[in-house]
Design goal:
The complex is a heterodimer.
Chain A lengths: L8 E2 L4 E7 L2 E6 L1 H7 L2 E6 L5 E2 L4 E7 L3 E5 L4 E6 L9 H4 L8 E5 L11 H10 L1
Antiparallel strand pairs in A: 1-2, 2-3, 3-9, 4-6, 5-8, 6-7, 8-9
Chain B lengths: L7 H6 L3 E5 L2 E6 L3 H10 L2 E4 L4 E6 L3 H8 L13 E7 L5 E11 L2 E6 L4 H11 L6 E4 L3 E7 L3 H7 L3 H9 L5 E4 L2 E4 L8 E7 H13 L3 E2 L2 H10 L36 H10 L3 E8 L10 E4 L3 E11 L4 E9 L5 E6 L2 E8 L4 E2 L2 E2 L3
Parallel strand pairs in B: 3-13
Antiparallel strand pairs in B: 1-2, 3-9, 4-7, 4-8, 5-6, 6-7, 9-12, 10-11, 11-12, 14-17, 14-19, 15-16, 15-18, 16-17, 18-19, 20-21
The chains are: A alpha+beta, B alpha+beta.
Chain lengths: ~130, ~350
C-alpha cells in the first residue's frame, strides 16, 4: 500500500504539491508513481525562472523501465529545482515526499490549489485506476 | 487468463511485481531491479525462465533436419550435452527466432526457443519436418530455472546430491549433463558464469526454495534485460526480427558457411546479401553524458547516415546508459542520438559492455 500523506494535494498524473508559504509550493511525484515506475536512473528538470501553465511538462523522470513526463499541478514560475537529483535520482524512490522533491513553484493563482485532489480523493483515484 | 509457471506462488511469496510477458504472468522485479542486477554481477541470482519453449526433436533424421532448419551447424555438436546458439531463418534470410540446441543423442536434440515466438516457431518447425523422419515433442510440463553469477557454482552445488555437485563443478561452459531427471547446462543470458536447469515442475519448486535458503536472490525479467544488454547478447524482436538478417544483427558469427554444400533455409538469400555487402551493422553505444538511450531513438552518424536504437537502457554496472543500434556500416567511433528533440553524443563500441562483473569499455 502506498504512502499518501494527508497534508498534500495530488493530481491525476500523480504529482503532489505542498504549501511552503508566500504562494510557494514544493512538488514531486507520489509514492504510488515512483513504485509504478521502479528504480529511477535519470531526472531532467526545467530551469528555475521559467513560467509554465498547469499541465505543462516541467520534468522527465526516467526509471530503468521507461521515461515518464511530469506535469505542472498548477500554473506558476519555477523558483528552485532539486539539483541533487542529478547525481542521485534514486532519492525519488527512497523519499518521494522529502528529499526526492523536484521543483518549487511560485503559483500564479493560489486558489487553483483547491481544484487538486486531497489525500482521500487521491486514494480513491488510485484504487479506481 | 495469463499462464502461470510452476514457480508462480514462489514469486508472490518473494513480493514479485507480476506483469504480462507474452501471455505469461511473470515477475518484473521483486522490489528493485537495479539491486537484483548487482546481485547477479556480484553474487548469484535465480531466474524463472519456465515460460521459454522446450522442444525435443527425435528420430533418424534429427541431425539432417536441424542442419537444414538452422543457420548454425549442429554437426559441430559431437559430444552429449554440447550446446550451440543459432538463428532459425526464413527463406529471405530474416530471423524467425534465435535458440539454443543441445545434443542429447545421435537421434535426439533438445531446442530451447523464446516464449514470445512460441506459436510461430512450433508452426514453422512442424512445417519443415514434412520430408524428414523426425518427431517434435514440446516439453510443456518442464520448468526452467537459471542460476547465474560468480557464486552460482558454489550455491547450486550446495543444494544437489554429491554426484551431481561434482558433475556441475566439472561441467565446461556451453555443455550440459542429464542427471536423474535434471538437465543442467552451463549456459545463460547474463555474461556471468551460471547454469540453466530443465526439470520437472515439482523438483523446480524444491530446488528454487533450497537456493533461496542458500541466499540466492530471485531476479525478475527487468534485471534479466539489463544483464543481457550489458553482456552484449541480442534480444529477439528488438535487435533482430524477420526483416533483418543475422549479418545486420551482430550475429554473422553464428552462421556456418562451411561446408559449402550444406543447404539451410535462408542460405541463398543470405549468400547474396553477403556478396553485395549489407548496408547496416549492429553496434554498441555508450552515451557520453547523462540521459537514457531507449529503443527506436534515431541515431545520426555525421556524413554517413542514420540508424536506430534496437535496445537501450541504463547499465547499472557502468552507471551510464548503453544500447544496441543498427547503423550504416561505415559508421565509425562516434554518433549522436536524438533524445526528446536534442542530439546527445554517444561512443560506438564493440559489445559486450560487461563480462564477468567487469567493464569492457575503455
Amino acid at each position: 500500500m502506498s504512502n499518501i500523506p494527508s497534508e498534500l494535494k495530488y493530481t491525476k498524473s500523480h504529482e503532489w504539491l505542498k504549501a511552503e508559504g508566500d504562494d510557494v509550493f514544493t512538488m514531486g511525484i507520489s509514492d504510488h508513481a515512483q513504485d509504478q515506475l521502479g528504480d529511477m536512473v535519470y531526472v531532467e528538470l526545467q530551469e528555475a525562472g521559467q513560467s509554465i501553465n498547469a499541465e505543462g511538462e516541467c520534468a522527465v523522470v526516467e526509471s530503468v523501465k521507461a521515461a515518464s513526463e511530469v506535469y505542472m499541478p498548477i500554473s506558476g514560475e519555477i523558483v528552485e529545482v532539486n539539483t541533487a537529483l542529478s547525481d542521485a535520482p534514486e532519492t525519488i524512490n527512497q523519499d518521494p515526499y522529502g528529499n526526492g522533491w523536484l521543483l518549487k513553484i511560485k503559483v500564479s493563482n493560489p486558489a487553483d490549489v483547491d481544484n487538486l485532489m486531497d489525500s482521500a480523493s487521491y486514494t480513491d483515484f488510485i484504487a479506481s485506476e | 487468463m495469463l499462464k502461470r509457471t510452476s514457480l508462480y506462488d514462489e514469486h508472490l511469496k518473494a513480493g514479485g511485481k507480476m506483469v504480462d510477458f507474452s501471455g505469461w504472468d511473470m515477475p518484473l522485479h521483486y522490489g528493485s531491479q537495479v539491486e537484483e542486477h548487482h546481485k547477479v554481477r556480484q553474487n548469484a541470482g535465480i531466474f524463472d525462465v519456465s515460460h521459454m519453449t522446450i522442444v525435443d526433436i527425435e528420430g533418424d533424421d534429427a541431425q539432417p533436419f536441424l542442419r537444414y532448419l538452422l543457420a548454425n551447424d549442429v554437426i559441430r555438436l559431437k559430444n552429449k550435452g554440447k550446446a550451440l546458439y543459432s538463428c532459425m531463418l526464413n527463406e529471405t534470410g530474416g530471423v524467425i527466432d534465435d535458440l539454443i540446441v543441445y545434443y542429447m543423442r545421435e537421434d535426439w536434440y533438445r531446442v530451447v526457443v523464446n516464449a514470445a515466438t512460441h506459436d510461430k516457431d512450433i508452426a514453422w518447425i512442424s512445417k519443415q519436418t514434412e520430408s524428414f523422419d523426425v518427431t517434435l515433442t514440446e516439453q510443456s510440463d518442464m520448468s526452467m530455472i537459471a542460476v547465474q553469477g560468480p557464486e552460482a557454482e558454489k550455491k547450486l552445488s550446495a543444494v544437489v546430491d554429491d554426484a551431481l555437485a561434482i558433475a556441475i563443478q566439472e561441467l565446461s561452459p556451453f555443455n550440459a549433463i542429464d542427471h536423474a531427471q535434471m538437465f543442467v547446462a552451463r549456459t545463460g543470458y547474463t555474461g556471468e558464469d551460471g547454469f540453466e536447469l530443465l526439470l520437472d515442475s515439482d523438483k523446480a519448486v524444491s530446488i528454487w526454495q533450497s537456493l533461496v535458503k542458500e541466499g540466492v536472490s530471485p531476479i525478475g525479467l527487468g534485471a534479466r534485460d539489463t544483464l543481457r544488454l550489458e553482456a552484449g547478447m541480442n534480444l529477439y524482436g528488438s535487435d533482430m526480427n524477420e526483416d533483418t538478417s543475422p549479418l545486420e544483427s551482430g550475429l554473422a558469427w553464428t552462421v556456418a558457411w562451411e561446408p559449402e554444400d550444406r543447404n539451410f533455409i535462408g542460405r541463398s538469400a543470405l549468400s547474396k546479401l553477403k556478396e553485395s555487402k549489407p548496408g547496416y551493422k549492429l553496434v554498441g553505444l555508450v552515451l557520453e553524458d547523462k540521459g537514457i538511450l531507449r529503443d527506436h531513438q534515431k541515431v545520426i552518424a555525421a556524413g554517413v547516415g542514420e540508424g536506430e536504437i534496437t535496445s537501450g537502457s541504463f547499465s547499472p554496472t557502468l552507471g551510464k546508459s548503453i544500447a544496441f543500434a543498427r547503423v550504416p556500416v561505415s559508421t565509425e567511433t562516434s554518433c549522436s542520438v536524438e533524445i526528446r528533440g536534442k542530439l546527445a553524443p554517444a561512443k560506438v563500441v564493440q559489445a559486450p559492455f560487461v563480462r564477468k562483473g567487469k567493464s569492457c569499455i575503455t
